[in-house]
């Protein structure tokens, strides 16, 4: 059949997601995509094309992976920071930025000097030893790390044998060796540097728990801390679930900032987190855990990662007024109810993105909450 030369060729209209740029034949499919993707302004994104990704690892692959976006990769190669993945205005601006972005390893001298042999310091009102970022005496953020030795017949049972807490200014506010509640069968000396002599004068696990709770709850009642936080501190660390479990402690989930569980810091498949050693080298620019693990060094690394993620600027005025006090898991909110489909298909992709919320609590909200 002959085609009418005056007839315009028909084209299928595509509906492109404003976040990840995935295209759909029907608007309904785009709405379904927004319902399950939980795109938001808090997601990591490419500084060149603004494509949203679920993790920073995905952004890195987009820019420097085996099959990068060519235009983005070229710009990133000349003006992109390998640590924070930001794009600078010029190569000279990049050089100045990298001097600040690449941090130096934490130095504390001899950790044993931080321990008062008679534990007199531990008997003091420890929270008064540090000052929060807002100038108050109450520490707003506390980082914690534990070192584990082995118990059980094969030494595979993790037992807390050393714990360190620091404030937001990287000052040690508590440090102690801990007497395990069952016999130690493997001191894991190559990793922990702990021997039997270190534990002879260590605190009991119960006593350590009381000291840590006194620091973290900061005089706030446990019931109020579990509901809204109050004066209780934000607890930062890496794989804190494991540390708290070994300490036989619980802490309100909404006050925990775990670098092993924070979605932007996870692997591309979003199922497993990276090691603290990898995250520190990749996003802070220096190495840790070369030999014996140092709990102070690990505390500082987790704290610096938290502060770097917290300092990211994502918010708008709308979010500042509506998310500043969010303390629940945002997956409970879904703006794309199927009953609103007729209304939603009339909206533009940009409007759909503007009303979408993340399925995790972005740490940038902590900065607004403190201010």
UniProtKB/TrEMBL annotation:
For this UniProt record, give its keywords in alphabetical order, as a comma-separated list.
Answer: Exonuclease, Hydrolase, Metal-binding, Nuclease, Nucleus, Zinc, Zinc-finger
Q: Name one GO biological process term.
A: rRNA processing
Molecular function per GO? 3'-5' exonuclease activity; nucleic acid binding; zinc ion binding
The record's CDD domains line, in alphabetical order, gives: REX4_like
Q: Where in the cell is it found?
A: Nucleus
What protein family is recorded?
Belongs to the REXO4 family.
Provenance organism: Elaeis guineensis var. tenera
Chain ranges of the C2H2-type domain:
15-44
Q: Does the keyword Nuclease apply?
A: yes
Could you confirm whether the keyword Nucleus appears in this record?
yes
Q: Which InterPro entries match?
A: REX4_DEDDh_dom (IPR037431), REXO1/3/4-like (IPR047021), Ribonucl_H (IPR013520), RNaseH-like_sf (IPR012337), RNaseH_sf (IPR036397), Znf_C2H2_type (IPR013087)
GO CC field: nucleus
Per its record, how is this protein called by name? Answer: RNA exonuclease 4
């Amino acid at each position: 059949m002959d085609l009418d030369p005056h007839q315009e060729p028909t084209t299928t209209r595509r509906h492109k997601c404003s976040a990840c740029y995935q295209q759909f034949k029907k608007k309904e499919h785009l709405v379904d995509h927004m319902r399950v993707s939980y795109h938001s302004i808090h997601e990591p994104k490419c500084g060149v094309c603004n494509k949203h990704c679920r993790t920073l690892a995905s952004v890195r692959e987009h820019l420097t992976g085996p099959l990068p976006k060519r235009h983005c990769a070229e710009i990133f190669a000349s003006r992109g920071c390998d640590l924070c993945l930001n794009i600078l205005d010029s190569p000279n601006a990049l050089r100045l930025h990298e001097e600040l972005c690449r941090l130096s390893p934490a130095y504390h001298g001899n950790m044993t000097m931080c321990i008062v042999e008679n534990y007199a310091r531990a008997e003091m009102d420890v929270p008064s030893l540090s000052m929060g970022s807002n100038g108050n005496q109450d520490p707003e953020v506390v980082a914690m790390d534990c070192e584990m030795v082995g118990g059980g017949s094969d030494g595979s049972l993790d037992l807390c044998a050393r714990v360190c807490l620091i404030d937001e200014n990287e000052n040690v506010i508590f440090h102690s060796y801990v007497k395990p509640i069952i016999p130690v069968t493997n001191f894991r000396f190559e990793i922990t540097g702990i021997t039997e002599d270190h534990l002879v004068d260590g605190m009991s696990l119960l006593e350590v728990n009381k000291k840590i709770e006194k620091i973290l709850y900061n005089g706030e009642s446990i019931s109020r801390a579990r509901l809204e936080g109050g004066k209780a501190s934000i607890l930062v660390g890496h794989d804190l679930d494991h540390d708290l479990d070994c300490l036989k402690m619980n802490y309100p989930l909404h006050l925990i900032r775990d670098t092993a569980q924070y979605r932007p810091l996870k692997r591309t498949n979003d199922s497993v987190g990276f090691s603290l050693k990898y995250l520190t080298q990749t996003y802070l620019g220096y190495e840790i855990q070369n030999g014996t693990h140092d709990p102070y060094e690990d505390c500082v690394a987790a704290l610096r990662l938290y502060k770097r993620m917290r300092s990211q600027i994502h918010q708008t005025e709308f979010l500042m007024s509506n998310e500043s006090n969010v303390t629940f898991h945002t997956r409970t909110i879904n703006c794309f109810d199927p009953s609103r489909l007729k209304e939603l298909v009339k909206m533009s992709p940009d409007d759909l993105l503007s009303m979408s919320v993340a399925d995790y609590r972005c740490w940038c909200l902590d900065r607004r909450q403190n201010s």
